Fold this protein.
Amino acid sequence: MRVAAVQYEVGTDPQANLAAGLRLIDAAAGQGAELIVLPEFCNHLSWYESREHARALACRHGDAFLTAIAARAARHRAHIKIGVTLARQDGRTTGASLLYGPGGELLGEADKQVLMGAENDHLDPGDTAGPVVRTAVGRLGMYACMEGVICEVTRGLALRGAQVLLNSLNSFAVDEAALHVPVRAAENKVWVVAANKVGPLIPADRLAQVSAGLGVPVEWLHGAGESQVVAPDGTVVARGPRTGEAVVVAEIDPPAADAERARHFATRRPGRYLPLTAQGRERTGPPGAATLPVAVVRGDAGLVRRAVDEGARLVVLPEGSVVTAEEAADAVKGTDAHVVTGAGVLVAAGGAVARVDDVYDLSWGRLAVITGSAARHPEEFRLAALADADVVAVPFTPAEPWELRLGLLERSAENRLNIVAAGQDGPGGLAGAILALPADFTLWTRWQGPFTGQISHPMVTHVKNSDLLVQGAVSPARSVNRLVSRGTDLVAGRPWRLAGALVEGPSEGTPVKETLQHVEQMLDESPVIDVTETFERLKRILEELKARIDARFELSADPASPGAYGTHPDGPGGRLDAYAGPEIDWLVHSWLGNPTASFANLHLTAWLGPHVRVPHLGIALLVWPEGWFYQDFIPRASLTADGGHFDRYYAPLDAQWLAFKEENPDFAWFTSRAGFIRASLSPNAYCYSFPRSPGNLDIVRDLLHARVGRWLEWVDEAEPVPEGERAALAAADLAVRRNIAERDPANVMGVRYFGQELTDRLVRGLWGGDRTLPRPS
């Protein structure tokens, strides 16, 4: 697929801005681009006098500006991603990423979750995680500028299945193109297409005033350009110039890195990442020392002693170092120095040092240690920042060039952490690095040194494969300042409310494996997370289906139904409502679980009366915390003995059933450990685990609606059962219903939450053991 990132100047005239955008879209399409990415805030320069001013100039869905962009997408049969300010109907004004499809339709939109500086004065942050949009050209995720200066947004998109990330920028920082853009490709194994602006980012009549007030030359208040396309290994395959309009074109292969991404994510530890979803807070730890001499030693204990004698107070050894903890302790005797061994043990002259809450409190500040493959994942360093670490020691083994060229640099920048990394010989000639925080950091404040276009980038001392001892200095005290701009804290301001994907693990595009575990095993071996959002979505799906059934049948609620029980939302709870009517023997609409702690089980089953032989309808949905669903048409006859029943109701569905398995690799067949449950399934039953992404939930919803629609058609077309056969059919139906309800392996979760007595009542509710309404005849 050919993609394009376009860069151009945006001013205060929306019509001129639209004309420029359309002209460059035409130029990109003329070069064969099927996917075109435009910068952020394409409708107006991001400079406003008030919130009211920003809203007045914002786009609206269906206005002339966006209609013209959509029409261009249709004209060129291309996908177009654009960033604008958008006036929402609920009163919010957001920085929105909009994706238009080749028919001109709006395929997806994502509001910017992390606002930068003055954007906080005029815009509202997004309150929903952006979608992963399935398209003919691949699975696309959208983000904007500041969202790429921290890790959560892009990581979440990749974990939810994105193959290509589309970044619209409004930035004068040269470290965007040098670091923050390419690292998101490498650390997530995705393609990135990033479009930045050129020209002034401040109104022309204000440039000189702002330049003088900040002590920043006028040229550094222009968009930094260098729009680019980045491969999943972090290689920039196409880059625009620093200044001037440009159309940056490249060929990409979205699925090429899918397998590598799955392998990479397999080394994550999502069970540790729950603090990343907790409310942000400002740093509370006191500042550390102004300067800390450090060293990387890739030799024996003698070199450790030499480093300490030359002033190092912290020495880091590479993973696999031959220096033992005892040798390291001997090497620092008579000093206050510390050594981090290749195994990640902190050693002082008296031996190993105890750690509290993932950090060591030392005389010069707070130290975190991250070892081995964990160093490849941004979540680990985020945890260190949340623990108010000042310095992170990293004994590891670099495996890919991006880890030392981009990865660790970004871990320092996005968390304001000093890092001392030591490895064995690595690719590209590098084995480690000493990354020190600069004093100048917060925008719109006076800087000590001249502004060179870099905002969030550490000072780097490389450790080469040929080096045995490298010394340097870091500044623990500088970790205290995390304000990249007024109102934008890199750590406290992270989008913690929308970071659920980080603890849920890989989703769309990373299939769940077929499992033979019991439900309680799956739950117990998964992280405890809040799945309320998915639970509510599943409830809405069943409510939609129930409404379709209600519209067709005459139903009455059975007074003996258990109704609501438990303590939800404060703890486990549920609800079971049962109905009957002239044509429905027993209909159950229920749920049970504790959605704030990873689990919910929902049912909608409709058992027909004996007047027809149409199969019964069975639906169950589960979150544990992955997704799971079951749907079956429960046979009313032996399918091997009654070929007519099979031919009428099951044979016509066979092709669709096979196609679902072939076309939906995210869905893994679920094999129950209970033989009776396996025996109860028809040849066309759906019983799958799946990553609970929005796209996958849409697939489940669409399938269930189609199947319920087919079932309702069958009911309307059915011939009546002879009256003399109805009693036997009703008895067989009840036996099947009771056996399935009583033998369901998931009943153990009811016992776990509510005890045996209430669980027994709920099971009777599933099959009608306590019913008061008469059965139909």
Q: What stands out?
A: The longest strand covers residues 584-594. The CA atoms of residues 328 and 421 lie 17 Å apart.
